Amino acid sequence: MVVAHELSHIKLNHVRNRQIVSGVTTGIMTALGFVIPYAGYLNYAVNPAVTNNFSKSQEHDADRLAAEILVKCLSISVDKQIHIYETLKADTSSGGGFWSTHPSWDDRIANIRKLQPAASTPANNH
Q: What is the mean pLDDT of residues 120-126?
């Protein structure tokens, strides 16, 4: 599951995209420093905030692609993947804070749960 997730980052060009976001943010903050003295130093706080929160959307994209690959290629159901996420959640910290590069486990689980067929969701199993 982790390998599929990391390979998804590569396929989706996430490293390059994150570098672009970081570079643009630095450029804006540098330009702002020419207008407002010392404002460029804000880049040390603004850049991590922007890039880390951008990374959260990339994590969701990589989780979804990895989940689709695991279903199609290895027949690992979304339900089984959610069970694995729940196990990881129990064994690690929650993550997902403002400065974190990864969304919380609950957000990640909700993200891949959207891939479940409607008939297999708990609300439809009476």
A: 46
